[in-house]
Structure formats: structure tokens, C-alpha cells
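Can anyone check this?
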Amino acid sequence: FFLMMRRPPRSTQSRSSAASDVYKRQVYASIFLFSLYLLIKFIDQAILATLISFQFCLLGIFCLKSIIERALEPFLGQLKSIQVFYRRYAIDFRITRWEYTVDLTRFDLVAFVLALIPATLHFATKSWITNNIFGLAFCISGIQRLV
């Protein structure tokens, strides 16, 4: 929260638009926290624990996948040229248009399967080792995103 407030405005934006972005983030965070409160209040704790564990494993898969990709690139880099799936998506809103590209190669599939192993173990056993693996993956991915 404090890092978000202290971030300097982008050079293409004015200070007022950067300040309004900060206020929007605060509103979104408040809505998220209120919805989390409602979930905790009205949903069975076993179901909620399963949902949170699933979300933790899903985010862990993506963080581990990025780390595994960097580690395996010198050995399996030739698999990046073999494309399995490619599709472009566009979502039109009134104000803006978002375009997404989904590009899946065999290298991505290998990294995903390797990241799926600790995620499956964590979801089934809740082992402290897999929890620490995910913790390290979250830290490394977070530090890489700061740069």
C-alpha cells in the first residue's frame, strides 16, 4: 500500500490522473477486502479453506513456471520454437480495447508440468516443504517484477 502511494507518476500521465489511479486502487482493495469478509462470514470454513488452497497452488504454479523456464532455457531452449497453440483475443469496452495474445509452446508445457508436481503435492498433503518452495517462488517472482 505504501509503495503504491509513493510511486512517482508516469511521464505520460499528469499528476491528477496518477492520483486518481491511486484512489481507484484503494477502492478496488476495499471492495476486495469487503468481499473476502463476506466469504469468511457466510461460506463454510472447509469450502473456503479449499478455495484458498486452490488459489495458492494456482499462483504457485505460475511463479514456479517462470523460475523453471529460466533454469531450463539453456538445456531445452530449442523447444521454444515448437508452437502448440496461438490465439489473439480482443475485448472491446466503451472506452478502451484490450488485446491479449495466448502463445503456448512445448517449452511452456514442460515447465508447466514440472511446476504442477509440487502444486499437486501441496494441495494433497499441505507439506511444509512445498509451502516453503512456493514461498521462495513468490519472493523471487515478486523481486523480479520490481525491476
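Reply from J.R.: I decoded it. Confidence is low (pLDDT under 50) at residues 1-9.
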